[in-house]
Design brief:
By secondary structure, the chain is α/β, with parallel strands linked by helices. The protein has 2 domains: about 1-245, Rossmann fold (3-Layer(aba) Sandwich), CATH 3.40.50; about 255-370, no CATH class. The chain has helices at about 20-25, 40-50, 65-75, 95-110, 110-120, 130-155, 185-195, 210-215, 215-230, 230-235, 255-265, 265-270, 280-285, 310-325, 345-355, 360-370, and strands spanning about 5, 30, 55-60, 80-85, 175-180, 200-205. Strands 2-1-3-4-5-6 form a 6-stranded parallel β-sheet, sandwiched between helices.
């Protein structure tokens, strides 16, 4: 398991990563760093390193990305993986410095919560600017940081150095994520970082502004789990809605062929009520189909890949036995001396056994035979 350290952004508390913590926790202990007490970015980086594990995966959003760059300069050997969310490697321009200090002055002289509610709406995607829940979260985090903490953070990030010259030295796996409508750190700056870091992947979150972890929590969580594990299957295992890349035109692999063969057996297995334990069903990649209707899963032009696995053969025989026990009235009696068991090589041979059992199984046999002739 890989320890994970998350660094919040400007005017953000630990709540900025609330949608991601529960999903990342199965892959390693998660720590959310504090950025409230230090006066410079190097001090913030040193404070994070002081409380972080010896080796860890590092992710930061907005100002947290600035701190991540400084951590990579101070202790690159301790960072296993790096994720940069809605951030930039550039230093502030004079215009940005003026805007930052003007916002601090406005919060000092006016209603702190009202000013920050207005400012936080401006950094969101246009579709999310009227979502009250997002405004409430941003205001709640801002109140946690406070006016003094906000001013301290602003004065800390203004003199930071330009991190672009040090980007090619980052040799660890890196994920760069940005919202497609981020007004503060637009996608072209994310593309700039992704092009400079050797081992990196760029993710653009759709319909998303600067607060990606809150605006598009599922997209960010999916990207972070793929980043921490390097495997899309782990995203699907924890229940995140992760479709992954489009493989509709890809050549079938061994796993897809095996799963397709097993799905072809589903019609008559459903008639026999499939006496399978959940563990066996998971190990064989079975996916129960809803409803009483019979589905063959056949598709024109798809060829059968015989033979069945031995596990599938055993399940089929168990299903046939269950169908015999449950069918009333029985059409044929069981033979006194059953034929010796042998391995089934095709669906046709299995279908030929079913008419000797029961009327419902005969229906399944007809369906299987008709699907094979397509």
């Amino acid at each position: 398991m890989t320890p994970i350290v998350l660094v919040p952004g400007l005017l953000c508390s630990a709540e900025v990563f609330a949608p991601q913590v529960a999903a990342l926790w199965p892959f390693g202990p998660v720590t959310i760093a504090s950025t409230l007490d230090c006066k410079t970015v190097p001090e913030m980086a040193a404070a994070v390193l002081a409380t972080a594990p010896p080796r860890f995966a590092l992710a930061g959003i907005s100002m947290g990305g600035y701190i991540c760059f400084e951590i990579m300069r101070q202790a690159p050997e301790r960072v296993i993986k790096l994720a940069l969310l809605d951030t930039s490697a550039r230093s502030d321009t004079p215009e940005q410095i003026t805007q930052r200090r003007a916002l601090v002055a406005q919060t000092r002289t006016g209603d702190f919560e009202a000013r920050l509610s207005q400012a936080s709406s401006a950094i969101l995607h246009p579709k999310h600017q009227k979502v009250s829940a997002l405004r409430e979260v941003n205001v709640r985090m801002a109140v946690t940081v406070g006016v003094d903490g906000f001013e301290r953070q602003v004065e800390a990030v203004i003199p930071r150095i330009d991190s672009r010259p040090s980007l090619p030295a980052i040799s660890i796996p890196t994920r760069v994520l940005v919202g497609d409508r981020d007004p503060l750190t637009p996608p072209d700056q994310a593309e700039e970082m992704a092009a400079a870091i050797p081992d990196t992947r760029l993710v653009v979150a759709p319909e998303c502004g600067h607060a990606s972890t809150l605006e598009q929590p599922e997209a960010v969580t999916r990207a972070l789990i793929e980043w921490i594990t390097g495997c899309v299957e782990d995203v699907q295992r924890i229940g995140v809605n992760a479709n992954g890349p489009d493989r509709s035109n890809a050549a079938p692999t061994w796993r897809t062929r095996r799963t397709w063969r097993l799905n072809r057996m589903m019609p008559f297995l459903s008639l026999a009520e499939r006496p399978l334990s959940p563990l066996v069903a998971r190990r064989l990649s079975f996916r129960p189909r809803p409803g009483p209707e019979i589905q063959t899963g056949s598709r024109p032009g798809r060829r059968l890949y015989p033979p069945f696995s031995r596990s599938a053969e055993r399940i089929a025989k168990a299903a046939i036995s269950a169908a015999v026990a449950k069918s009333t009235p029985k059409i044929h009696q069981r033979p006194e001396s059953p034929a010796p068991a042998r391995r089934l090589s095709t669906v046709t041979e299995l279908a030929q056994m079913i008419p000797q059992v029961s009327a419902p199984a005969s229906t399944a046999a007809a369906i299987v035979n008709s699907s094979l002739r397509r």
